[in-house]
């Protein structure tokens, strides 16, 4: 039976087991997970937090990571400013980016999700409000969520991937991992 690991990737951790060619040593998956034979199914940028799935099954890895399977990925996104209904609707309908329009997405304003403190903390600016969004996409372009929110005038301050398909971060602290129930 394939093994599937759910990992809550902290900020500033690379989504790989080694950091070749870097002049400064950066945190990698090997600092948190000592399980031979598992590899990330997809990626999560170094400056993003949240759910990263790892598996020892190449077919499962492809099914999770390949956009053709349209597995929804849900993000909790703290943005600069307070997006109005038109900005949220643009996110939901798809945004034109340099590499083409995005697919329609689930997009909604949400209350502060009361997540763990981020290290380092978000820069606080007294005169600039922030807002939280829930954004679910079914593709995974490079830095897509950040580019989408910027395209509607609300740069991303904090990005946490909460779920991939039915797998969620629920009950996982940053840096912790657990095996998924049978896949």
From TrEMBL:
Pfam families: PseudoU_synth_2. This is Pseudouridine synthase. GO terms for molecular function: catalytic activity, acting on RNA; pseudouridine synthase activity; RNA binding. Its EC number is 5.4.99.-. Residues 4-151 form the Pseudouridine synthase RsuA/RluA-like domain. Gene3D superfamilies: Alpha-L RNA-binding motif, Pseudouridine synthase I, catalytic domain, N-terminal subdomain. It comes from the Bacteria. It is an enzyme of class 5 (isomerase). Belongs to the pseudouridine synthase RsuA family. Keywords: Isomerase. It comes from Aurantiacibacter gangjinensis. GO terms for biological process: pseudouridine synthesis; rRNA processing.
């Amino acid at each position: 039976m394939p093994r599937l690991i759910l990992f809550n990737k902290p900020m500033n951790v690379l989504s790989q087991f080694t950091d070749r060619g870097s002049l400064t040593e950066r945190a990698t998956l090997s600092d948190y997970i000592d399980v031979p034979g598992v590899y990330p199914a997809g990626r999560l940028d170094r400056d993003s937090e949240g759910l990263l799935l790892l598996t020892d099954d190449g077919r499962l890895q492809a099914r999770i990571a390949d956009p053709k399977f349209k597995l929804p990925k849900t993000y909790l996104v703290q943005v600069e400013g307070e997006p109005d209904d038109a900005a949220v609707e643009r996110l939901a309908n798809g945004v034109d980016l340099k590499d083409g329009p995005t697919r329609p997405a689930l997009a909604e304003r949400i209350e502060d999700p009361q997540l763990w403190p981020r290290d380092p903390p978000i820069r606080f600016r007294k005169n600039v409000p922030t807002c939280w969004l829930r954004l679910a996409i079914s593709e995974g372009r490079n830095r897509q969520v950040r580019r989408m929110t910027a395209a509607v005038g609300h740069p991303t301050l904090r990005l946490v991937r909460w779920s991939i398909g039915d797998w969620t971060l629920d009950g996982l602290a940053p840096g912790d991992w657990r095996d998924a129930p049978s896949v």
